[in-house]
Write a structure and sequence with these properties.
Blueprint (H helix, E strand, L loop, with lengths): L2 E3 L12 E3 L12 E10 L13 H4 L9 E8 L11 E6 L11 E11 L5 H6 L1 H11 L8 E5 L4 H12 L3 E6 L4 H6 L3 E4 L5 H11 L4 E4 L6 H4 L11 E3 L6 H12 L11 E3 L6 H12 L7 E6 L3 H9 L6 E5 L12
Helix pairs in contact: 3-4
The chain binds NADP nicotinamide-adenine-dinucleotide phosphate.
NADP nicotinamide-adenine-dinucleotide phosphate binds next to helix 3, helix 4 and strand 8.
């Protein structure tokens, strides 16, 4: 089969990606596993960041194939009979660090996948990590009809975050650059252009009308937003952080925010780092919202399989607007709408 592979992370994985046209088809090894003919793969920062970190020698066997979020056809069903051969499913790969889906075939686990319903493989593959992480950042943490600030509204988690927050009945303000302002507004958010350099000031002004009840920080490059969060959020508002890097520039501010107690000048809001979990009932909810057109999948670009390397160049630029999806194959005509 064809598979994109890398065996070195020198200079990042993007320059090391090679298309192997003679890779072995993976085999099912556990009862919940199923062999998938991959139709589409949605890209996320997790598809390159662990491979470029100190996890590389331990968590990823080489040659490695990236690609976590997928839509595809079941070729060999799991022993638990949850899916049959020919069903079309979407979800995340068995192992989020190892990926494995940027290939003609990959292994999925029934704990991490659901039926595609009426969605297209492209839309479905774009959802899992970004959609679920946005959902879990908001859903259990605040009561309905609250005000949310999303730092970074135009990327994968941001575009889902705006719409999921709206679907849950919240009022949303985001930061984004001027070029993405219209998009964020069209998804239902009020917009602050961070490139004007007045983000904190504008948040405090907005809070004079109504304070924010939750902050979802998709960017985490401006520590002041956390240290001064009490000036624009309500008492007890959670400050949720999505990025995580094992670099000094990330860990030093992150740990001081996490560990410094209030009485020693620490932050006045609880900072929580979250890692998205493959909760299938939540994935079903997002699939249903997309089906009902209450949530729209925003696509930066859909590229053919052969252009995966260019897709990674775009992904690693940090400028993605919505999601990048790699088209791997066409669905079989009779099975593309299976539920
Ligand atoms: N913890 C988890 O489970 C989890 C899950 C998913 C993602 N994440 C992390 O969350 C972060 C966001 O992920 P993602 O997939 O949404 O990333 P993404 O799609 O690559 O985000 C790119 C977007 O961020 C915008 N942006 C860049 N700098 C910004 C700034 N200073 N202020 C506001 N917007 C800015 C960019 O637009 P402009 O450049 O035009 O502003 C672009 O639209 C990443 O660090 C990712 O690793 C964590």
């Amino acid at each position: 089969m064809r598979a994109w592979q890398y065996s070195s992370n020198g200079g990042g994985i993007t320059p090391n990606l090679r298309l192997n046209t003679n890779a072995a088809v993976p085999t099912v090894k556990a009862s919940k596993e199923m062999l998938i003919r991959v139709l589409a793969v949605g890209l996320n920062p997790v598809d390159h960041r662990p491979a470029e970190s100190i996890l590389y020698p331990f968590a990823i066997s080489k040659p490695a194939t990236p690609g976590t979020d997928f839509a595809g056809e079941v070729v060999q069903g799991p022993a638990n009979d949850l899916f049959q051969k020919g069903d079309v499913v979407f979800g995340s790969a068995k192992n989020i660090f190892a990926g494995g889906m940027l290939a003609d075939y990959g292994i999925a686990n029934t704990d991490h996948a659901i039926s595609i319903g009426p969605l297209s493989p492209t839309d479905a593959a774009a959802i899992p990590i970004a959609g679920l992480t946005a959902y879990q950042s908001i859903f259990p943490r605040i009561k309905p009809n609250r005000r949310i600030f999303i730092n970074g509204g135009s990327g994968g988690t941001g575009t889902f975050g705006i719409q999921i927050a709206k679907a849950m009945g919240h009022k949303v303000t985001v930061s984004c650059s001027s070029r993405n302002a219209e998009l964020c507004r069209s998804l239902g958010a009020e917009v602050i252009d961070y490139t004007e350099g007045l983000l904190l000031h504008d948040l405090k002004e907005a809070a004079k009308v109504r304070k924010f009840d939750l902050v979802l920080d998709n960017v985490f490059t401006n520590p002041e937003l956390y240290w001064k969060a009490h000036e624009y959020t309500s008492e007890g508002a959670p400050y949720i952080v999505l990025p995580f890097n094992m670099t000094a520039s990330f860990m030093v501010p992150f740990l001081s925010m996490k560990l410094l107690p209030r009485f020693m000048g620490g932050g006045q809001r609880t900072l929580t780092q979250i890692f998205g979990q493959p909760k299938l009932e939540q994935l079903e909810q997002i699939r249903d919202w997309v089906t009902e057109k209450r949530v729209k999948v925003v696509l930066d670009q859909v590229v053919p399989f052969e252009q995966t390397k260019q897709a990674f160049e775009r992904l690693t630029s940090g400028r993605t607007v919505g999601k990048i999806v790699v088209g791997v194959a066409e669905a079989s005509a009779t099975k593309s709408k299976s539920v």
